[in-house]
Q: What sequence folds into this?
C-alpha cells in the first residue's frame, strides 16, 4: 500500500518556464511534508517543507502548496533552470500528531524525473 | 560543518555473506536513520537510532540490524545476504529525529 504517490514518473520543461511536480497521499496522520532532490550517485538533498497547518510555503524559486482536503501537494519551480534537472521525491511524516512514533521515518513517493531543457 | 559521511561507498558481496555499513552524522545530530533504495521499491525506512537506542523500525526482516555508539555514529549490518539486498543504503541524520533529515551519499551494495 503506497501511502505517498507521485503519479508522473517524468516531466520535461523548457528553461525559464514553470515546473509543477505533484504528490498525493492517503494517510491522514501525515502532518509534515517535504521535497527532496536527488542527483545520480548522491544522497537526497532537502529542498523545502510544509507543515499541515499551512497551505503554502515559499523559498526563492521553490513553492510548495498543500491541499489537505484533497490530500495533495505540489512543488512549483519558477523559473526552471537546467541545473534543476534531477529526481524529485515527495516525502511525508507524522510528527506532531503521532505521539512521537515517527522518529526518523519519512514515507517517500517513487520520485519524478525532471528534465529542464536549455 | 561536515555533512553525513557513509562508508564504504561501494562494495560487492556474495550470497550468504554479511556486511557492515557505517554512518557518521553531522556534528550535533543525535538521530540516525537508515533507508534502503531500490529501483522497484523506492526509498524504504529501515530503522532509527537516538542516544544509542532504536526508537523506530520499518518492515524489514531480522537480518537487518543496527546500532549507535555514544558519539552518535551508527552502523547497520545485514547478515546472510540475498540477491534482493542489492541496493543503495542511505543514512539520514537530524538533531531530534523529526523534521528535515540530512542524507549521506549512500553505500552501494551489490550482492552476487
A:
Amino acid at each position: 500500500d503506497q501511502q505517498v504517490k507521485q503519479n508522473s514518473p517524468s516531466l520535461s520543461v523548457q528553461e525559464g518556464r514553470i515546473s509543477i511536480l505533484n504528490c498525493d497521499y492517503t494517510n491522514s496522520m501525515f502532518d509534515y511534508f517535504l521535497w527532496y532532490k536527488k542527483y545520480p550517485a548522491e544522497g537526497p538533498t532537502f529542498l523545502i517543507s510544509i507543515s499541515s497547518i499551512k497551505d503554502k510555503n515559499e523559498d526563492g524559486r521553490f513553492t510548495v502548496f498543500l491541499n489537505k482536503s484533497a490530500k495533495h501537494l505540489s512543488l512549483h519551480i519558477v523559473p526552471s533552470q537546467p541545473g534543476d534537472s534531477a529526481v524529485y521525491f515527495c516525502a511525508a511524516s507524522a510528527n506532531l500528531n503521532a505521539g512521537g512514533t515517527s522518529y526518523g521515518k519519512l514515507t517517500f513517493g517513487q520520485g519524478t524525473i525532471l528534465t529542464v531543457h536549455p | 560543518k561536515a555533512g553525513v559521511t557513509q562508508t564504504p561507498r561501494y562494495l560487492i558481496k556474495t550470497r550468504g555473506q554479511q556486511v557492515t555499513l557505517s554512518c557518521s552524522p553531522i556534528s550535533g545530530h543525535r538521530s540516525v536513520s537508515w533507508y534502503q533504495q531500490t529501483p522497484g521499491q523506492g526509498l524504504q525506512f529501515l530503522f532509527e537510532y537516538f542516544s544509542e537506542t532504536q526508537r523506530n523500525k520499518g518492515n524489514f526482516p531480522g537480518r537487518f540490524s543496527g546500532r549507535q555508539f555514544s558519539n552518535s555514529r551508527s552502523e547497520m549490518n545485514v547478515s546472510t545476504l540475498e540477491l534482493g539486498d542489492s541496493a543503495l543504503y542511505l543514512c539520514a541524520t537530524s538533531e531530534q529525529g523529526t523534521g528535515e533529515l540530512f542524507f549521506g551519499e549512500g553505500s552501494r551494495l551489490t550482492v552476487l
